[in-house]
Design goal:
By secondary structure, the chain is mainly alpha-helical. The chain contains 5 helices and 2 strands. The longest helix has 32 residues, at 144-175.
Length: 176
């Protein structure tokens, strides 16, 4: 994974701090996570160093995102099934998940958005929000053949109507 470009706002959210407190020192002391020594150094993903030990950034981020997901599931257990589609209710847990994924990617200098974060976001939609529909239906363009007929019909009528007006106005002058 290539080093990321700076996209986020750069602020540390309260949710990430709360997550760090709830999950304990496991997230702060990254030296406990070890990289596999059987991999070639040329094929390893980019690594982050903590206390002099090279660790796989991807393994760190994978472990942390699982904690982000677990915290999201914990928050969503408090939401009633009838409230799953109300943005005012679910915005906090959803934003916490997104902030956690993005914040840890930023701290580990891991690109964001990335495939793992995207997988968790899609999983949240699939599990919790798949039955949500919009209150107001979204209108789409008509099919192309209908659209062309609606455009061409007035264009073809204009010359006919102009001819009709001119013909009737000449007829009116001759009678007067």
């Amino acid at each position: 994974m290539a080093p990321r470009t700076h996209i986020s706002s750069g602020r540390l959210s309260r949710g990430l701090l709360l997550l760090s407190v709830l999950l304990g020192p496991g997230l702060c002391h990254m030296e406990n996570v070890t990289a596999s020594s059987s991999q070639d150094t040329g094929t390893n993903p980019p690594t982050a160093t903590s206390n002099g030990t090279a660790q796989s950034m991807e393994q760190n981020y994978t472990a942390i995102t699982q904690h982000c997901w677990d915290y999201f599931v914990h928050l969503m257990k408090k939401v009633l099934p009838s409230e799953l589609c109300e943005w005012k209710i679910i915005s906090r847990p959803y934003s916490e998940l997104q902030d956690c994924l993005e914040g840890w990617a930023e701290r580990l200098n891991y690109s964001y958005p990335n495939a793992l974060a995207e997988q968790y976001i899609f999983q949240s939609h699939h599990i919790y929000f798949h039955n949500c529909t919009l209150e107001h239906p979204v209108y789409f363009d008509p099919p192309e053949d209908v659209l062309l007929a609606m455009i061409i019909a007035p264009i073809c009528l204009i010359p006919f109507l102009v001819t009709l007006v001119i013909w009737r106005s000449k007829d009116g002058k001759a009678q007067a």
